[in-house]
């Protein structure tokens, strides 16, 4: 198991509550949906993979959905059973506002993934940046373990977790998840070359429930 990250304010609920309180105001005043974490290109790579590989009627959950834009995009691609949860109430308010604005039919609710998000309810779970945030809490090791256990529990047999991180490499993610998940696929992300080493800024791995 790799070492833990340094704790950061991004690992606290206060940070996200403050951020989304402002983003709700911005959306209502200027129609700005707020931060697209990791950028449009990464979001597009994830939704393209889902579009090519997942049946349109599968039950899909986005954990730590933020403004809900990943689900809005999937809805526009024809997916019909879309759900988002976030532990920040204002993220849920924002996601509902944004979804209404785009005329999409998505269910959003407040939930803390470290408690529970269901039992064998979903074929697919999406995570863009949420495991990263959890990895920066002051209780990161226990929180990461609770996350892995709850996501595993919420997936149906052979269900898929599509996780995208900017804090962990592909190999680190695999070392965290391998006891409960097999690697199903990897979404290619842009690479950089520095001093003869090739690396990726983002890692996007699809794990299948064992
Ligand atoms: C980096 S943001 C990413 C938001 C969204 N996935 C996106 O790509 O725009 C991390 C998100 O995880 C949420 N989050 C962090 N810890 C959580 C937890 N324990 N349960 C539910 N949501 C959580 C935060 O409120 C925030 O919306």
From TrEMBL:
Domain of life: Eukaryota
GO MF term list: protein-lysine N-methyltransferase activity
BP-aspect Gene Ontology terms: methylation
EC number(s) reported in the record: 2.1.1.-
Family per similarity comment: Belongs to the class I-like SAM-binding methyltransferase superfamily. EFM4 family.
Domain annotation Methyltransferase: ranges: 58-182
Predominant subcellular localization, coarse grouping: cytoplasm
UniProt entry keywords in alphabetical sequence: Cytoplasm, Methyltransferase, S-adenosyl-L-methionine, Transferase
Entry's Gene Ontology cellular component terms: cytoplasm
Coiled-coil ranges (or none): none
Matches recorded under Gene3D superfamilies: Vaccinia Virus protein VP39
Organism (species): Aquatica leii
The protein's name in its UniProt record: Protein-lysine N-methyltransferase RN001_014985
Compartment annotation: Cytoplasm
Protein function: S-adenosyl-L-methionine-dependent protein-lysine N-methyltransferase that methylates elongation factor 1-alpha.
